[in-house]
Amino acid sequence: LANVTTIAPGTPAASALASATAKVNVKGGRGHFFGLWVGNVHAHMVDEAALRREFEQYGELCVSKVHGVPPVNILPDSSSAFVNFCTYEAADTARHALQGRTVAGVGPLKINPSDYMQLYEEELRAHQ
């Protein structure tokens, strides 16, 4: 499975991933992914393909069949979207690179890590 996060055993990242996964009870069979909540995304101004092109420049996005979530999901009622990455590094890079920017005609983007990604970051700090 090429689209699954692989982390070297015995590393702080592996310990953080195990702790975060146990705390949020990741559903069985679903690959790990790192999501970003993206605000100021107006569905009438951008489509998923355009948003995907902007974010995938920073790393591989999730595959629904592997991770159980779509790579990009625009939520029209809340003017926001979720963008889901295969790796923490890609999600973190995209978060910092695109924060406050206007992309694909929408913005300025307000980007926050998903609850799982926040928990992973806390666990990563605790295991270092």
From TrEMBL:
Q: Which PROSITE patterns match?
A: RRM
GO MF terms on file?
RNA binding
| InterPro entries in alphabetical order | Nucleotide-bd_a/b_plait_sf, RBD_domain_sf, RRM_dom
Q: Which UniProt keywords apply?
A: RNA-binding
RNA-binding keyword on record: yes
Ranges of residues in domain RRM: 34-116
Name of the molecule in the record: RRM domain-containing protein
Species in which this protein is naturally found:
Hemiselmis andersenii (Cryptophyte alga)
